[in-house]
Amino acid sequence: EAGLDRRRRAWVATMFVSFFCGWAGSAAADSTSTYRVLHVMSYHESWEWNQDQFKGFKDALTGLDVDYRVEAMDTKNNPDEAWKKAKGQSIRVLIDEWQPDLVYTNDDDAQNYVARHYVGSAIPFVFSGVNAAPATYGFTGSPNITGVLEQEHSLQTIRLLQQIVPDVRRIAVIVDQGPTWPGVIERLQQALAADHEVEIVAVDTIKTFAEYQRKILDYQGKVDALGILGVFGFKDEAGNNVPYQNVLQWTAENSTLPDFSFWGDRPELGTLCAMRVSGLAQGNGAGKMARAILLGEQQASDFPMEPTLKGEPVISLARARKLGIQVPTSLLLNARVVTSFRWDL
Question: What would the CATH number be for the domain defined by 154-277+311-344?
Answer without folding.
Answer: 3.40.50.2300
